[in-house]
Amino acid sequence: MITDPLSALAVLACVAFIAPLVADRIGIPSVILLLGGGVALSGTIDPDEVFGELLFTGVGVGVALLLFEGGLTLNWSQLREGRAVVARLVTFGALLSWGIGSVAAVLVLDVPTEVAILIGAILVVSGPTVVMPLLRVARPREPSASILRWEGILIDPLGAVLAVVVLDAVLEERSTIGIALQAGSTLLAGAAVGVAVAAATLTALRFRVISDHLHGSATLAAVLAGYALANELRPESGLIAATALGMAFANQRRVPVAHIVEFTEGLATTALGMLFVVLGARVSMGEIVDYLPHSFAIAAALVLIGRPLAVLAGTAGSNIDHKNRAFLMVLAPRGVVAAAVASLFAIELEHAGLEPGPMVPVVMTVVTVTVVLAGLTARLAARRLKIAEPKPTGVALIGGGPFAVEFAEQLLRQSIPVIHVALQDEWIDEAVAKGQLVYSGRLDSEDFITTMQKTGVAEAVALSGESHIDTYVLERTARIVGSDHVHGLAVPELDEDSGTDSRIEPKPILPRTFSASRLRFLFGTGLRVRTVHGPRHPRSGWITLCVVTSAGLVRFTDDSTDVAPGDAVVQLGPGLTPQSS
User: Residue 578: is the preceding peptide bond cis (ω within 30°)?
Assistant: First the structure.
């Protein structure tokens, strides 16, 4: 048994890193392995003994960071079709789920009725910790994607408030009016603190009171301050404050927040991993096995009865079609907030002289079962219902002049989506005249990321020769495609220090003799791009740029790579006119 806090933290951090790494390799949601890894550590690390009272402070801070990061993605203008649906899902739908979960807990668990009702309230919570990874795997089209994203983020703080109100009713035996007043004051306190802290932080950023290199630190301080202040005013309103703070950042236009989004993404990923592993380690395998049938029964009630009823209530009278309704019914996982709240409430019940019974192992098992079920069925359901976005196959070309225009023309002939990231006005008109898509907005805005995602970009190629521009755009695009799928020109100005500290090393698509300026010159003297088909190596003087496989995927390669029948080879060479054969 590990009892040293530093050693325990190191082990937990390693598991929190390895689990999502393995999950990415085998193509499953990371939360499945994170929970499994935590439970596997339960005989080695006892988080309560190692961290003591700081454990739940850390859990609360981690959840607040996740909700803030989720709130940053909630741009109200992007939710056009499903606003009313989201509102009903997090109100009437949540109450239905609470009722079904409570009835199931009363029927299958030998616990007092008030404890069963409390378990039902806790299991209302879904949350971004599980919904976001599942959406990345399933890739549903709109409006399902936006509805699930908004519901997942809003239900976390609202569900936590519901659970707190129910706990208070159990412990204090408040009247109905008292319960309503407590819920309203909790929501109001959290929202007010979140908006106020956001206004103060954004004002400081707008008027450059805070130096650029301190924006990340200032944001983190604002989240922690808002969370703590709201909790001081009303218990558990800190989660509302963190969500409201993120939404306030996302729905204003005066201060660019793209760099803050990037900063919080890393924090949220770390917090997610640590939370699932730590909470999984708090439950022994023996407890889980003992209550496995009971947990399965409650999970079945929530997934097969509670979720369909909630979706039917949420989508009644809307224009959501039956395919999207069916997919909304499929995705019903519970999240890390449910596990954290169950652990916290169990301690509070014990302090009040009430026996929580199997609350913690049952909630943890229900979370695990619903996450695994959703993880295994989400992508399949999206495909069967024909609402899944196709696998990205597009190419983003950053700069490049006439070479980029001709390169794009050849890719478009092979049905590969292409988007130009506009840097020079003189060749943008030519690209547009040929019907090619051009992005000419701000490179540091969230619109850039959204445009790349909607275009279906899978590969990015930097061709401008301006090292600082290429590096910045590739770093932003790598958030979507991954650093293994960014390419560029292998010329000295891209390799030498240009004052830009970058972790991106673009893979060269041409020999070092081809700089951006030389490409522009050669295209004025006859250099062209062509496409040939089948397993043919380039003739003398032609250089392979990429291969478009028969499956419609772009593979940047070299001349020695085998080309299968049906593949299209895009080449750069000395032809007088563009050719296709």
Answer: no
